[in-house]
Design brief:
Elements: H1 19-35, H2 44-59, H3 63-72, H4 81-88, H5 92-99, H6 107-116, H7 119-126, H8 133-142, H9 145-153, H10 161-170, H11 177-181, H12 189-195, H13 201-211, H14 216-222, H15 226-229, H16 235-244, H17 253-256, H18 262-272, H19 276-286, H20 290-298, H21 303-311, H22 317-325, H23 333-344, H24 347-360, H25 381-393
Helix pairs in contact: 1-2, 3-5, 5-7, 6-8, 7-9, 8-10, 16-24, 18-19, 18-22, 19-20, 21-23, 21-24
Length: about 400
């Protein structure tokens, strides 16, 4: 038998105040008594038959009758599943009575309610104790922001990696989610460092403090591979080692640059502005892709500039020089916040963050999270960035 459809309003056939209505209510209560019997009394077959009859009557009863039944079965974990699922998809105030704590529902039941129910039903499920990864994934897949918020606020819920990915992607258009996501232990650097770009200032600071690392273990374990990598053309190996290696600047880029170093390139940009050529040159000298640099410079909040300066060893005045190159005013709160980020983040951690950004923009990892590089204003600039990035990747280890 299939589940009966959910409903949120009382049926048209409300029980009239007649002898027939009295009989129906009496039968309703007796059937509820049978269904609510403990397992030590009666047999399971009788309770199952009573549940089927009760469900049939409830289909033609008003919402007050369904609420009465939900209250009667509120703590009955042995009640027939079809009856409980029906009531759990009823009007929100009826469903809440069962969804709050009734232990009869398994993960399959809860996923069914998430799929068939509305926002109040999903929120009620998300607030249950000990929500497991399968139910968390169903809530995330529903796209219901209020339910996801309730799930993240539930400290007893257990999130699957898939649910975290979906909620991180949804957080781009839901400002309430990033502050909750970054406090969950299931969130990893892959999630947080991508979510950084659409998070608020407080969340960005927390992301940089919590999810950056110094890569000491990676460098120690993989250090001997670098001497082989200079002769290895495997692009996958090359891309991975870019995240691990110690140096940030690309020394070979000086030979291709019109300037004698990164500092000179930034000084020139501060005077002439951040032109496409200046951006490509600074990116190459910094050891990152042009598309990564463009992402950093187009970000209006600006914390990425502090990360870039610290990771590449640029001194404090170059934070201001970048600000001038982007034609932004130094009197606003953004600049003061960016200068503070520069002072607080360590060089090794800034390098990890910058390299992870650089890697993730072209990685096959988590396609639901990573978005495309921002749309460039200059005609043909996107194609230029791809061409420059491809050329730079061929000589990345000549440092």
């Amino acid at each position: 038998m299939t589940d009966v459809p959910s409903h949120t309003e009382a049926p048209a056939g409300v029980v009239p105040a007649t002898p027939e209505g009295f009989v129906r209510r009496s039968l309703l209560r007796r059937l509820m008594d049978v269904v609510a019997l403990p397992s030590s009394r009666g047999n399971i077959q009788d309770r199952a038959i009573a549940g089927d009859l009760l469900l049939e009557i409830l289909l033609e009863s008003d919402v007050s009758a369904r609420e009465l039944c939900a209250r009667r079965l509120q703590e009955m974990s042995q009640a027939p599943k079809r009856l409980l699922r029906f009531l759990a998809l009823d009007a929100p105030h009826v469903a809440q009575l069962l969804l709050a704590e009734n232990k009869a529902f398994d993960d399959a039941d809860l996923c069914h309610i998430i799929e068939r129910g509305q926002t109040p039903h999903r929120v009620s499920v998300a607030q249950r104790r000990d929500i497991g990864p399968a139910v968390a994934s169903a809530i995330a897949e529903s796209g219901d922001v209020l339910a996801m918020k309730a799930l993240l606020e539930n400290s007893q819920s257990k999130l699957s990696d898939r649910s975290v990915e979906l909620m991180v992607a949804a957080s781009r258009d839901a400002p309430a989610l990033p502050p909750l996501l970054i406090n969950r232990e299931e969130v990893r650097p892959a999630h947080a460092l991508v979510m950084f770009w659409w998070s608020g200032p407080d969340e960005r600071r927390q992301i940089l403090l919590r999810f950056s690392a110094e890569r000491t273990l990676l460098i120690d374990m993989c250090g001997d591979i670098f001497r082989y990598a200079s002769e290895e053309l495997d692009p996958v190996v090359r891309k991975a080692l870019q995240v691990i290696e110690r140096r940030q600047r690309d020394r070979t880029a000086i030979d291709r640059s019109p300037h004698d170093g990164l500092e000179a390139a930034v000084d020139a940009a501060a005077i002439a502005g951040m032109t496409p050529d200046a951006l490509a040159d600074i990116a190459a000298l910094s050891g990152i892709k042009a598309s990564t640099a463009n992402r950093i410079f187009q970000d209006l909040s600006g914390e990425g500039i502090a990360v870039l300066c610290k990771a590449t060893g640029l001194k404090r005045p170059y934070v201001r020089a970048f600000w001038q190159a982007l034609r932004r005013t130094e009197e606003d709160a953004d600049f003061r916040r960016v200068a503070e980020v520069y002072e607080t983040i360590a060089v090794a951690k800034a390098q990890t963050v910058l390299r992870y950004w650089n890697w993730s923009l072209s990685s096959a990892f988590t396609p639901d999270i990573a978005d495309e590089a921002p749309v460039e204003e200059a005609a043909g600039f996107a194609g230029d960035l791809r061409r420059i990035d491809a050329a730079a990747s061929r000589g990345v280890f000549g440092r």
